[in-house]
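Check the record.
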Amino acid sequence: MRRMTRRGFVTGAAGTVAGVTASATVAGDAVAGPRSAAARPAPGGASRDVVRRELRGMWVATVGNLDWPSEPGLSAAAQRAGLIAYLDEAVERRLNTVILQVRPSADALWPSPYEPWAQCLTGVQGKDPGWDPLGTAVREAHDRGLELHAWFNPYRVANHTDPSRLAASHPARLHPGWVLPYGGKLYYDPGLPEVRAFVQDAMLDAVRRYDIDAVHWDDYFYPYPVAGQTFADDATYAKHGAGFPDKAAWRRANTDRLVRETAERIKAVKPGVRFGISPFGVWRNASADPLGSRTAAGVQTYDDLHADTRGWIKKGWIDYICPQIYWNIGFTAADYAVLLPWWDEVVRGTGVDLFVGEALYKAGDPAQPAAWQDPAELSRHIDLAAGYDQVRGHAFFSGKAVVADRVGAMERVVADHYRTRARPPR
């Protein structure tokens, strides 16, 4: 994700809507250093009493060294220290969940028999870093009373299109027919049954090995549309698409299979491990579907990413949904105050927990609308969510933004809403 399009922007075919461009980045944001000790809330707050069950989460992204490790090639001791610092930051902010990206680009932050060691660790994909980051993260998180949600990306192979740059043992090199280039990146082809089986096997290895609390996916299924480019899966559709009315329906069925099968396999391996997904915040606009939200988003997960996020909730395939409602209250194309009640109504009566993904990285970014220059914007989000009984917590993107807290928006959230500790929902 080095200066790459950040997930969560509302984009149209030309990459813009309501003046917001799809090329905005977080990797290039100005980031201040850690807060001084005087500026930090006391760990645990004035009281260590548990007040209620709600998720207070923080994503820690590893792809492109976005959050951690701060750069590739650090010593094992330095990497471990950096990871522990994020866990300690979560405790000091009175968060209770860290969502750690452990399979960023079809590689692994644990000794996987399926995929090579992640490039973000040593700078060389496949090189043993000399320690077990996922095992350490689980143990150290639990020692601090934090949940550790293991964040996997199912289909991304690389943020480039040159297979020769992958480790020689990489499955994408061993099975070149599994891979398609698109938008300057490499992806596994979601339409291939052998790909769906493989990515499940690779992810479930971590479930078997470690005491993780949840399997977590973000918003990447079929890739985000790129103007003027075609995801070249015609041959796969011709081979496997019989019986579907069109390619879009077939693609959605492929994504449905991945979600349903993964859910079933997680429960078979470890019934206590939860399965959660954090999709782009708009399922469909009401202009495309009366069941959709009153938004004007240029991207709709159902149509563009071929991900029926609403359907997964209604069918009970997932344990929680954490939509990335990455827009301010009053944003015309996708108003936080419109999307929040829409998601609240979708989960009602389903038993699926609703957490809200919050765009902390936008707070204080001069490229963002005026609302994001106000340190109180995110606190207002949580105030608003308190009025919807299906909302059971929030997660903040991402770790670097939590630490930097550019304009004090996270500090404001803690002061207004996280004065005591809380356990995550179960």
Observations:
- The longest strand covers residues 97-103.
